[in-house]
TrEMBL record:
Cofactor(s) named in the record: FAD
Protein name: SidA/IucD/PvdA family monooxygenase
Organism (species): Pseudooceanicola pacificus
Family note: Belongs to the FAD-binding monooxygenase family.
Stored PANTHER family: MONOOXYGENASE, PUTATIVE (AFU_ORTHOLOGUE AFUA_8G02570)-RELATED
GO molecular function: monooxygenase activity
Keyword line: Monooxygenase, Oxidoreductase
InterPro entries assigned: FAD-binding_MO (IPR051820), FAD/NAD-bd_sf (IPR036188), FAD/NAD-binding_dom (IPR023753)
Domain FAD/NAD(P)-binding: 21-235
Key word Magnesium present: no
Residues of the signal peptide: none
Length: 502
């Protein structure tokens, strides 16, 4: 049994000697979805799931800091085919249990191969195969695994470490510096002063959940973030359960309502941004009181949804600040000193422990060295078709979820597309496919992947040079609107000239 999850032992790399129909990279929320769709829709296909970690779960396995929870509701972050029963914002443990049930209910355990670190992925046009080199971390032995189709579900950031800026004087700091992705199992904060650097979902989760472990915690942010504070309950789900409606129906109804409400909220962020801004800030003011400097600490200078809006269920961050167990400082770091952090204002922020909740270290394709017919692939030289397939790269799909909606919504859209694509290739007896610009698109303007004016978190802007590029036409752009994509993907004509087959 797997010590982390209670899952029966997964497969060995040594058993993967024959070319597979599909190789899935990553056993997080996207990879398990991919495996389930293959099992359900194409039961005759051979496939395997490889993951660098010791178990499934991705983010929910590797992140262990206090309070780790979802930042999206589980009715949409969960799968459409498996009802979520519980509060919408869930803990990592609850999400792992849900994923374990998905694996068991769909008989996926034997397809999972853990501790497999992939270093290379090479496409051979003569054989019409991808061959990946994977090292078994337990034995140190390298294995080659071949497949006709490669499904990259490993996410977009490096799980082994997070992003920490190199501030002046860090070596002089006498205390402990921790990134949330590498939270120590034996952490003891008793009597210590903690400073959490950051203002996103991680910082907002950590601060209220560490107050009982340290003497005091201060959230240090360079600039404010928008937060949505809502009751951790879906009222319509509670009412439907009282009416004894089946969980399958509740899941579908709640999912549709949340998707519609999310779409409407996003539309308002662009059609009436100042009003939405005022509403979000007013919630902070209601929790913290008129004496609190909400203008400085919770009023961003950008408009809503240009960066991710973090959720704080039941106002827990605001309550921690209002109760005095936590405080917030908005300033920039001048340097680290032995006793704390010197701010640009000149103030010294005392600290025994500093937590750098400063974002992800972007890793778009899992640090895998890709090649096609012996030539290295630089994904920044490719253009992304619907942010999932790339010019010059055959038989591969990459899952990039939504930032303004739940990641899983797009993971499932892509999964359904892949099933249709594999069916089409089987029916037409084609063994190779890659996207290509239409004849009418040869002069289409090409841009970096992230649009700074639309969505501009730091980790994406820092990693533009490793990301594919996007085109001006919608099918070559990064779309963040599930409401339109759910219909557009279903309407994709697989015989269209945008797909080159042989």
């Amino acid at each position: 049994m797997n010590k982390m999850t209670g899952l029966s032992a997964a497969g060995s790399l040594e058993t993967l000697t024959e070319p597979l129909d599909v190789l899935i990279v990553g056993a997080g929320i996207s990879g398990i979805a991919a495996a389930r769709y293959l099992r359900a829709e194409r039961p005759g296909d051979s496939f395997a799931v490889l993951d660098d970690n010791e178990s499934f779960g991705g983010t929910w396995l590797t992140h262990t800091y206090p309070g780790i929870r979802s930042d999206s509701d589980l009715h949409t972050f969960g799968y459409s085919f498996k009802p979520w029963i519980g509060p919408p914002i869930a803990t990592a443990g609850e999400i792992l249990a849900y994923m374990r049930e998905t694996i068991e209910e769909n008989d996926l355990a034997g397809t999972l191969h853990f501790g497999a670190r992939i270093s290379t992925a090479a496409w051979d046009s003569d054989r019409k195969l991808w061959t990946v080199t994977a090292t078994d971390k337990a034995t140190g032995r390298e294995h080659e695994v071949s497949a006709r189709f490669l499904w990259m579900c490993q996410g977009y950031y490096r799980h082994s470490k997070g992003y920490t800026p190199d501030w002046p004087g860090m070596a002089d700091f006498a205390g402990e510096v921790i990134h949330p992705q590498n939270w120590p199992e034996d952490f003891d904060g008793a009597g210590k002063r903690m400073v959490v650097i950051g203002s996103g979902a991680t910082a907002a989760t950590l601060v209220p959940n560490v107050t009982d472990q340290v003497d005091h915690v201060t959230m240090l942010q360079r600039s404010p973030t928008y937060f949505r504070s809502e009751k951790n309950e879906i009222e319509i789900a509670t009412k439907l359960r009282r009416l004894q409606v089946s969980e399958e129906w509740i899941h579908e109804i709640v999912r549709r309502e949340i998707v519609l409400m999310g779409h409407d909220f996003t539309e308002r962020c662009f059609s009436e941004p100042e009003q939405v801004k005022a509403e979000l800030v007013s919630v902070a003011r209601a929790y913290l009181g008129e004496a609190f400097d909400v203008d400085t600490h919770f009023t961003p200078d950008y408009l809503p949804w240009r960066q991710r809006i973090a959720r704080i269920p039941d106002g827990d961050l605001y309550k921690a600040l209002a109760g005095g167990k936590a405080s917030i400082v908005t300033d920039e770091i001048e340097r680290f000193e032995p006793d704390g952090i010197r701010l640009k204002s000149g103030d010294l922020l005392p600290a025994d422990v500093v937590v750098t909740a400063t974002g992800f270290d972007l890793c778009a394709f899992g640090d895998v060295a890709f090649s096609v017919d012996g030539q290295p692939v630089d994904f920044h030289d490719t253009v992304g078709y619907r942010s999932m397939m790339f010019t010059g790269v055959p038989n591969m799909v990459w899952v990039m979820g939504y930032f303004r909606s739940s990641w899983t919504l797009r993971a499932e859209i892509v999964a359904k597309f892949v099933i249709r694509l594999l069916d089409h290739m089987q029916e037409t007896q084609k063994s190779r496919v890659e996207p290509q610009l239409r004849a009418s698109q040869k002069d289409m303007p090409i841009h970096d992947w992230a649009d700074e004016a639309d969505f501009n978190p730091g980790y994406l802007l820092r990693g533009q040079h490793v990301l594919p590029r996007r085109g001006a036409d919608p099918e070559w752009a990064l779309n963040q609107d599930y409401w339109t994509e759910k219909d557009e993907f279903e309407a994709i004509d697989l015989s269209d000239e945008v797909f080159a087959y042989d």
